[in-house]
């Protein structure tokens, strides 16, 4: 029997990160809500409790210690200034946080001095301007920040950019280096003990990331080529090599990054490997 308290996990209830976060948790074997109005869900077999909250508020709950861990965006964690820290990136919700302004001329960061900058992330922007020694007036808006210039309340904006479509539609262009590369992350407090279920949650989510990012590659190759083939497919530690009934040939099995699987198959074929098979990994613990 498990007598430690339930691990309390905050999950985005709406917005860009919500669906993907719940899908990842489901893939890691946790129960997720079926009704989007449900605010709390207890997953008894896994000994965890999920709280569905606005992603912007998640760092606050975790930082204040009312919830143990949470899923939010790196940009939101840093903007909040909450006493929480990143545990691991989750491989979805990737965005850049950038300055942008009307595309009628090419802006320089230094031109922001004395200007009005509209944003929903004042914490992030304030810190970035301070770092650069620029004084500007921040106009805090809730969303649709791209309209702020046309409507006359700001000269430039700082906002989340994913595809860049919203900016283009508004006749704007990004300028300067990205302020931040963001993605969905797991957060905790510095003193969140990992024995209360956090280590297990982390292991499960890492397993999902590996299963998503890697494939299993099997192939047959002449024994004398094993060393060269192993250089093409080194696996995570080392490939598994087993004997084949066919004299002088071996079977090799190794994990390969999904993104390069086709190129690796081409290289193996060129080398002389045959019967090259790729299969998905449904789940794993490494
Ligand atoms: N296309 C996107 N637009 C906005 N935020 C995104 C996008 N893709 C990922 N994100 C990330 O999602 C988080 C923003 O979450 P939020 O719930 O505010 O999304 P949203 O789409 O703006 O939702 P809403 O507009 O309903 O408030 C940030 O961490 C951001 O980096
Ligand atoms: O680069 P893109 O792919 O166009 O995505 C980025 C845009 O999407 C988000 O807006 P959202 O639709 O959430 O509206 P909001 O500004 O009201 O939050 C974000 O604030 C940007 O405006
Ligand atoms: Mg939004």
Q: Would you kindly provide a written description of the structure presented here, covering whatever features stand out?
A:
The protein has 286 residues and is α/β, with parallel strands linked by helices. The protein has three domains: 7-91 and 183-196, D-Maltodextrin-Binding Protein, domain 2 (3-Layer(aba) Sandwich); 95-181, D-Maltodextrin-Binding Protein, domain 2, CATH 3.40.190.10; 214-280, 2-Layer Sandwich (Alpha-Beta Plaits), CATH 3.30.70. Helix content is 27%, strand content 33%. It has eight helices and 15 strands. The strands form three sheets. A six-stranded mixed sheet has the order 2-3-1-4-11-5, sandwiched between helices. The chain has a five-stranded mixed sheet with strand order 8-7-9-6-10. A hairpin with a 5-residue loop joins strand 13 and strand 14 (249-257). Helix 3 (74-80) packs across helix 4. The relative contact order is 0.14. The protein binds adenosine-5'-triphosphate (ATP), 1-O-pyrophosphono-5-O-phosphono-alpha-D-ribofuranose and magnesium ion. 1-O-pyrophosphono-5-O-phosphono-alpha-D-ribofuranose binds next to strand 9 and helix 5. Residues 143-146, 159-166 line the site of 1-O-pyrophosphono-5-O-phosphono-alpha-D-ribofuranose. Keywords: Amino-acid biosynthesis, ATP-binding, Cytoplasm, Glycosyltransferase, Histidine biosynthesis, Magnesium, Metal-binding, Nucleotide-binding, Transferase. This is ATP phosphoribosyltransferase. Residues 211-282 form the Histidine biosynthesis HisG C-terminal domain.
